[in-house]
Each structure stands twice: as C-alpha cells, then as structure tokens.
Design a protein that fits this description.
The chain has 78 residues and is an alpha+beta fold. The chain contains 2 helices and 4 strands, in the order ββββαα. Strand 3 and strand 4 form a beta hairpin. It is elongated.
Length: 78
C-alpha cells in the first residue's frame, strides 16, 4: 500500500501494454505521487504527505488545515 495518495486515495490501476502487433501484456499505471512537506501554520509545524499532483491542487484550493482535519477524522495519523 505504499503507492497511495493520502488526500485523494488514488492507487495504481492495471491495464495492458499493447505492442505494434497488438499483443497485450499486463502493466500498471502508477499515480503521480510526490512526497511533499507543508507548513501547518495553525499548529506551527511541518507535515510530510505523500500526495498526487491532484492532491496538491486540492490542498491549494481548500486549504491545508481543512484537508488535514478531514484526514484526521478518517483516522489517518498526521
């Protein structure tokens, strides 16, 4: 469960790699995860999150404190 976005919950999905001759073999599509530090001003500390780029946009739009509060309500340890 290492490749999971902490904000959006994105996980790897499976699909096919298709060759020129149309032979299909299994492959994984991994989410674009970034390990990023955010400064939580309300608690005067840094938090490190493993988030997808969509998760970074969500934090920018809704605010870090709101997102962290919801994650803690879901039982995530931050």
């Amino acid at each position: 469960m290492a490749r999971v976005c902490q904000v959006t919950g994105k996980v790897p999905v499976t699909g096919h790699r298709v060759s020129h001759s149309n032979i299909k073999t299994k492959r994984r599509f991994l989410p674009n995860l970034q390990t990023k530090r955010f400064f939580l001003a309300e608690e005067d500390k840094w938090v490190t999150l493993k988030v997808s780029t969509e998760g970074i946009r969500t934090i920018t739009k809704r605010g870090l404190y709101t997102v962290v509060k919801e994650l803690r309500a879901q039982g995530e340890k931050i």
